[in-house]
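Researcher: Structure prediction, please.
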Amino acid sequence: MAAKGFNRIIIIITTISAAIMELLDTTIVNVALNQMAGSLGATIEDVAWVVTSYAIANVIIIPMTGFLAEYFGRKTYYLASMIIFTIASYFCGASEGLWELVFWRFIQGVGGGALLSTSQSILFDAFEPKDRPIASGLFGMGIVLGPTLGPTLGGLIVDNLTWSDIFYVNLPIGVLASILTILFIEKKEGEGTRKKQIQIDYLGIFLLTAGIGSLQFILEKGESEDWFDSHLIILFTAVAVVGLVSFVVWELYTEHPVVNLKVLKHRTLALTLIFTFVSGIGLFTSVFVYPVLVQRINGFTSTMTGLSLMFPTLIAIPMFPIIGKQMAKGARPVPFIVVGFLLFIAFGIWAGTLSGDANMWDFFPAHLLRVLGISMLQLPLINQAVAGLKPQEYPTGISLNNMVRQLGGATGIAIANNYVTNRVAQHRSDLMSNMTSENPLFMERLNGLTNTMASRTGEFFSATQMAYRQMEGMVMKQAYLLAYLDTFRIVSLFFIVIFPLIFLLRTPKKSQEEAQKAALAAADSH
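Model: Predicted structure follows.
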């Protein structure tokens, strides 16, 4: 039954604040990676695990959310997830070592994975069916504002407090939302009463966790471990292959799968998941690489970094409800997907041309292309994923779509880390090849630096050594700049490579009523 008056207001505040809290944590840490690396004595490449561990947990838990909510009861599962998220946030902030922080970020991701879809489901039940477009609009704004506010809020906290406080900010919100959930959110009739009838797919859960976790370890550590020269990488490769293949086979043949992979027999869904995977690479990799680039090379503060991401996103916010209305009216998703891909390709190419002297407004056009691309891809890809599915298959199709997007993001960040490491070494080698006595430009620069140092210290020999070290620092800075710019181009390359597959997409014609059901399912299973 729909809620009324004060109760409805409380439910709106509770569900939207919980969703925003979860979404904030997907991006809030990106602007603090440099500070975390320095504080924890780790490299940027290792600190990336703080981002990817959260994403991996989301990948594992998202497809199981519907099952877990049915088994434990939606309210119980929602409350438990919120409490887990809040407690893990405290321990993230209290962590004194990198791997301790990574562990608690994973636990935080397990709790956070349920908050989006369950929050929206509870919010929708607070409205009559005819008023649910209002609920969808309210929640949609939260979905957009969460990731937008993350880098900005994170920047303000890091610049004025410490990186630990980006996790502590969740505590009062989590505690208040938990109390309001207990007091004001009612259980649905029959909720959580079918435990005895539900069979838990323990083997499926284990195989999914082992396969995804091992795959991510390979992607993250392969470069530093010399890939298959390492017995550890060989071991995890075997676990990943056996785990994922066994998971697919088991889920296709078991009577009660935790993830119903049989829906992949629909060609449109299977093909759409490829596009969703690449869109996840673009979405997550771009907002991971950019903060590291501008803070390490361009000298941005964390606050400047957050603001430079926020302004273009705020401009693009109106696109989300406009596209949502078009989808509900039965508009074909494919044209939106084509435009979204072209915008992302343009973003990667443009961002790959920027310099180490660029200011936040120089990056503005590229980011505007990125967020417009996101707006053109998010909801249309979900609608394309369920095209051809039966209404009862919508939740499974959408859960798979969301899982694959998160997996694409985690994979993209790992690829970016390895690619940057490789490209830095290559660019350094190329630049150092020009630092010879036969190069007049190099000698002119070296002599100038040496004379400057000698005038300050009065010792020519030590001044020469200091000049060489300064030149080495300049070379490394330029090598990192070129490597990060290459990474933006690689993002474009992913989109370019699969772009021709768009012409294989087919969208069965839906009535307006069917389109509205699909749009509602897409919103309800975000």
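Model: Residues 69 and 76 are 8 Å apart (CA to CA).
Researcher: Thanks, that helps.
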